[in-house]
Amino acid sequence: MKVEDMNNVLYIDLTKKGIRTESRRDLFDKYLGGSGVGIKLLEEECPPGIDPLGASNPIILAVGPLTALYPSASKTVAMFKSPLTGNLGESHCGGRSAMAIKLAGYGAIVITGSSDLPLYLAIEGDEVKFRDASSVWNMDAVTVGRVLREVEPGAGVRTIIRTGTAGPKMVRYACAVSETYRHFGRLGLGAVMGSKKLKALVITADKSVEIAKQKRKEYKRAYDVIQNIVVKTDAMEKYHDLGTPGKIYNLNKLGGMACKNLESARAPEEIAREFSGEQIAERYLSRRISCAHCPVGCVHLAALRELYEPGYYFKTVTVPYDNETIYSLGFMLGMQKAEDYLLLNDRVDFVGMDAISTGVILAWATEAYAKGLITKQHTDGLEFNWGDVQVYLEAINKIVEMPNEFYQNLAKGVEHASSVYGGQDYALAFGGNEMPEYHTGLACYMNNLTGARHSHLDSAGYDLDQKLMGKDFTIEGVVSALLKEEQWRQIPSSLVVCFFARKVFTPEIVIQALDAIGLEGWTTEKLEDLGREIHRAKMNFKFREGYDLAKLRIPKRIFEVPTPHGYLKEADLRKAIDIYGEMIGV
Ligand code: SF4
After folding, report:
1. Which atom of ligand 1 sits closest to the CA of residue 239?
2. Fold of domain 3-204
3. Residue of the nearest CA to atom 4 in ligand 1?
4. Which of 59, 146, 471, 521 is the most buried (most CB within 10 A)?
5. Mean of the pLDDT values across residues 379-393?
6. Alpha carbon distances (Å) from 173 to 223, 250, 430, 437
7. Which sequence spans correspond to the domains of the chain?
8. What is the band of 1 on the pLDDT scale with cuts at 50, 70, 90?
9. What pLDDT was estimated at residue 3?
C-alpha cells in the first residue's frame, strides 16, 4: 500500500448492512487525518439537532498520515455527537486501534445507521462481516474481548474495540475499550455504540505501507530523529518510569488535587503518600505495556490479588492505573487505601464506563446523600459514605443495571442528576462533562469550560496554572495562551500522535516527517493556520448543537476552595469567558 492510498474512507451502514469505500484525498490532503478529517466527516454525516442516541448519529474513527509510520503516532480519534454533553464528542485511544485501521487500508471508518439485532463488525482488510452479537451483547468489556480473540483471526495485528455492559444500557458516559487496557474514555462513545446495537469492532490489518524508493533514506533519517528523542532523551522518560501517577504527590502538595468532591484541594500527607505513583508502583506495579508502534510503555498495570471464595482461593486481576483515575476513584471518593481504588478502577473498566465521570458522579451523590437531598429510597438501600469501597462497587453495578429512577438519572451524568435532585453548586461538570483532576487556578477552569472536548487535554490549563505560579499575569494573557495551545493541539491530534509525545513533534519535526513520506509543502505557518481552522470547525459544531458561552453553568464549589493561586473569583472567570468569546468572534 502506498502512502497516497491511505486516504480511503470505509463507510458502513448498520441499517442496510451495506458498505462502500471512497477515496477522500480531498479531506486528507487538506486536513491531514484524525481530528481534522474527523470533524469534516462529522459535519457531513451528522445532521443538526439529532438525538445522539438515535440512528442518525455517526461514529467516525480516523487515523493520520504518521500512523504506523513513526514512533508514538499510535492513536485513533473517534468523533460523534456526545450523548453526555449534547455537542462535540471526541475521544482518543491507543492500543492497536490506529495500526489496525491504517494497515487494514483505511484513513477513516464512518459508521452510520443502527442495527435491529445486536452485532459486531469484523473488518479484515477489504472485507466487512456483520456478525451476530446476541450471545455477547450483555458481556463485560473483559470477557467479550476474550471471546472475540478466540473466534476472530488476526492475533497481533488486530484491534478489538468493544463496549462493556454500560454501553448496551446507554449509560451516557459508557466508554469503548480497546485491547483491555486502553479506552475511548470520555463523552460516551460506548453509549453511541450501544444505541446502534454495535457491541464491537474487530479490525484486522492485512497490508503494509511502502515508502517511495527515492524517499527511503529521508524517511529513515526522520524516523531515527523521532525515535532517538523518544527513547534516548528525557522527553518521555517520566511516562515510562512512574507514568502519569508520578505527579500525584506534588500536585496534592501544591494544593491542586480535588478531594471528596472538592471539599478540599489537598489530602492529608498519609493519603497523598498512599496514592503516590511511587507507592503504587512499589506495591502493585506488575508490568508496563505500550500502544502499537510506541516505545514508551507508559501504560502501568497493577497486579491485585483478590479473594474470590472463602478459604485460600485467590485470583490476580490486572488493573491499568493513571493519575486521572487515581484522582476520580481515589481522592474524589475519599479512599484510604490504594487497593480499594484499584478495585473500583477494575470494576469501572469491567462494565466499561468512563472512570473520571463515574468518580465525579459518585462524589456528588455522596455529598448529596450527606446533605439529605437523596435518601436510601433513592439509592436502593445504599448508604453513600466517603471511602466505602463496597458501597461504591455496588453503586457502579446499579448505575448499569438502573433498578430505579435515581440510577437512571445517575447514568445521564452529574449535570443531569443535579438538575433533578439539586446540589448544582457542587455538581462538578463543565460544559456537561465531569471535571478532570485539577483545581489549579483560572487556566484549568477556562480549559474545562471552553475547551472543545471539555477535557484537560484540550489546552492543558492545569499546566499553564502551574507555570504561572509566582508570576504576574493578566486574564487576557491566560485566555490567549490557552487558545493558542488548543489551536496547535489540533495538529498532533490530526497527525495523529499521542499527546504525551506532543513536545517531540515540534513544527520542524512534523514538517520533516511529512516530507519524508511524500507529503511535501507543509510549513509552520500552514500548520498553524490549519490548527486554527480545525479548532474553529469544532467550535462551530458545538455552537450549532447549542453550546452557548453565555449559558455556561459554573459550580460555586470551585470558588469556595483555594487553588494554589488563592481563591478563584467568579467575576474573573466570567470575564475570561467573555474575552474568549471576543477572541473567537462570538
Ligand atoms: S506514550 Fe503511552 S499512551 Fe502514548 S502512545 Fe505511547 S504507550 Fe500509548
Report:
1. 1
2. Aldehyde Ferredoxin Oxidoreductase;  A, domain 1 (3.60.9)
3. 498
4. 59
5. 98
6. 37, 29, 14, 17
7. 3-204, 244-409, 440-502+523-584
8. confident
9. 73
